[in-house]
Amino acid sequence: MFFLNFLKNSENKSLIEPILLFLAFFLPGFLFQNQQIDGEIFNSPIFNLYYLVSVIPQIFLLLYIISLKGKESFSRYGIFKLTAKDIGSGFLYALGVIAILSTTMVIITMISEVAFNNTAAKALPVVDWQINNPAVIPLVFVTTITIGYSEELFFRSYLLTEFINSEGTNKTAVIVAVSLLFAAGHIYQGAGGFISTFIIGVFFSLVFLKKRRIHSIAVGHGLYNFFVLILSIFMN
Questions:
Q1: Distance separating alpha carbons of residues 217 and 223, to the nearest angstrom
Q2: pLDDT score of 49
Q3: By residue range, what is the domain housing residue 104?
Q4: How many Å apart are CA 101 and CA 110, to the nearest integer?
Q5: Where do the DSSP E strands lie in 100-162?
Q6: Does residue 152 lie in a domain region?
């Protein structure tokens, strides 16, 4: 009853769409993070195909919803034609993410060694992502790029634009809130994963608000995920 009254309240109408989209797209994954995560799951072609079949329709649904928001809606949400410059920028952003995460992990390790008597693993990610089947690399590439687009379209292009354009909102507060929500989906990686993901969320948010181009950060996000998985081949 409370939820129905909340939705009927005219002051809350601007929240209905983001809430419902989040519930449909991300809530199940957020709720079941306590389940055992298989770090080798990307080796399975079935998993990759299942993910693509599940998420690509969500991407198109979000694009369709954005298209209904009036003239030049795509440009307001930072959606333009993909260019070679976007891909180049995405590559640089991926390297930036690696640099940020590396620095963050060093700092977290140093702090955890002092706070937890050298048990740094308590603060570091607990999922060891690995690829040991080179034959799935092309499919993994498509999956990781899709992950980048799925998350960046919702958390950066959609949520940031929706709330920063709302009357009376504080841009810094919106960036922090959206980045915390984004990081909450990575709690399964431990405290280190949560903190580093929050920092990456802030980084991508700032880049998006400055450049207003979703392709570059989506490609950067996807390439970072891909690089991490490819690196695991040589770490085995």
A1: 10
A2: 97
A3: 84-236
A4: 14
A5: none
A6: yes
In three-state secondary structure terms, 119 is: coil
pTM: 0.88
Which pLDDT score, from 0 to 100, does residue 42 have?
A: 94
Is residue 154 a contact partner of residue 62, using CB atoms and an 8 Å limit? yes
Q: CA 177, 179, 181: angle at the middle one, nearest 5? A: 70
Q: Are 131 and 42 in contact (CB under 8 A)?
A: yes
Q: Quickly list DSSP for 37-95.
A: P-TTGGG-HHHHHHHHHHHHHHHHHHHHHHHTT-TTHHHHTT-----HHHHHHHHHHHH
Could you tell me the two tokens for 175? 């960036």
- What pLDDT, on a 0 to 100 scale, did the predictor assign at position 3? 42
Q: What is the pLDDT of residue 36?
A: 75
Whether 24 is in a domain gets the answer no
The answer to whether residue 1 is domain-embedded is: no
DSSP string computed for 186-220: TGGGHHHHHHHHHHHHHHHHHHHHHH--HHHHHHH
CA angle in degrees (0–180, nearest 5) for 176-180-186: 150
Identity of the amino acid at 181: L
Q: Domain count of the chain?
A: 1
The residue ranges of the chain whose pLDDT is under 70 are 1-13, 112-126, 167-168, 236
Which residue has tokens 């709720």? 31
- CA nearest neighbour of 25 among 54, 64, 1: 54
Q: How many residues would you count in the chain?
A: 236
